[in-house]
Amino acid sequence: MEGRRLITAVGLNLSIDRTIEVPRLIPYGTNRALSTRVDPGGKAVNVALMVARLGAKAAVTGFMRARDEAFFGDRLAEGGVEADFCLLPGAMRVNVKVLDREAGAVTEFNEPGAFVPPEDLEAVLNRVRRRAASGGWLVLTGSLPPGCPKDFYLQLIRSAPGCRVALDADGEALKKGIEGRPFLVKPNRRELESLTGKVLETVDDVKRAALELTEKGVEVVVVSLGERGALAVRKGECLFAPPPKVEVKSTVGAGDAMVAGLAVSLEAGSLEGALRTAVAAAGAAVSTPGTQAAPIEAFRHIYETITIQKVM
Predict the structure, then answer these.
(1) Which among 288, 280, 228, 220 has a CA at the least distance from the CA of 253?
(2) Per-residue pLDDT tens for 221-277?
(3) Is the CA virtual torsion 302, 295, 112, 98 positive or negative?
(4) Is a pLDDT exceeding 80 seen at residue 2?
């Protein structure tokens, strides 16, 4: 799984993730925790840690609040990830994930994050531009902080003409970003429905909607279908991967692990290999509690079980 080029994930609205596991979630009642853990969070962090776990060179850039710089820096260094942040005053937002063990489901409480002024947006844009000059991959993922324009991902894409760009966003950020023709887009089915304005009930519906994005200049579209698997499309090729059979401990970070697997494996050029790696990485993520990167042993075991089907 050795990647040849640096993969840099951009995190504009990172967080501290507190994961609380309860036997059964009781709304409006008292819930006693079975366990708790605290991890550096945000989609860009999840992507970068999984990229490194898969054996490729990984970095994270974006915004970091001074109070939590050491916590993030230490954890990223332990995971083999280079940190290159624009430092801002204050503390990171905190997201709480409550895992209902009985239901195998997660309830999330996410803070919006602090306002980012225009001069700081310009600073991170310049930082991304400098990093992109050496080529490699740029992964744009996660929510935009207050004060950030909806087309900021588009601005970042246009500032990085020498990079392959992977875009994993939602709403207007996704819609605007596609105008920049990123190499890879990874929506889930709900995000793709919102983007196209269509209800996508079948795999064939998803395929047609994904192909519409390739007609807009996106090279590869991978759609996460959750418990139904994943679909990968590029012109002249459509592949489907059923979901791996794993015990679900936390669905948080599964999509990020999928993006990491795609960025690492698409370097080799095979869509089939990339989809297999992506689904195995996502499967390993859901079998791991919290938002830390899944063990490589779990990934390797699941990878051997993944089957890829051609969709006509």
Answers:
(1) 288
(2) 999 998 889 999 998 899 999 988 877 676 777 899 999 999 999 976 689 999 999
(3) positive
(4) no
**Does domain 7-310 correspond to CATH entry 3.40.1190.20?**
yes
185 to each of 39, 153, 180, how far by Cα in Å?
26, 12, 11
Tokens matching residue 1: 């799984």
Residue ranges of domains in the chain: 7-310
Q: Which of 17, 39, 68, 256 is catalytic?
A: 256
Here the tokens at position 62 are 């974006």
**68 classed as catalytic:** no
Instruction: Give the SS3 label for residue 116.
Output: coil
CA–CA gap between residue 135 and residue 6 (Å, rounded): 8
Contact criterion met (CB below 8 Å) for 88 and 66: yes
Query: SS3 for the chain, per residue?
Result: CCCCCCEEEEECCCEEEEEEEECCCCCCCCCCCCEEEEEEECHHHHHHHHHHHCCCCEEEEEEEEHHHHHHHHHHHHHCCEEEEEEEECCCCEEEEEEEECCCCEEEEEECCCCCCCHHHHHHHHHHHHHHHCCCCEEEEECCCCCCCCCCHHHHHHHCCCCCEEEEECCHHHHHHHHCCCCCEECCEHHHHHHHHCCCCCCHHHHHHHHHHHHCCCCCEEEEECHHHCEEEEECCEEEEECCCCCCCCCCCCHHHHHHHHHHHHHHHCCHHHHHHHHHHHHHHHHCCCCCCCCCHHHHHHHHCCCCCEECC
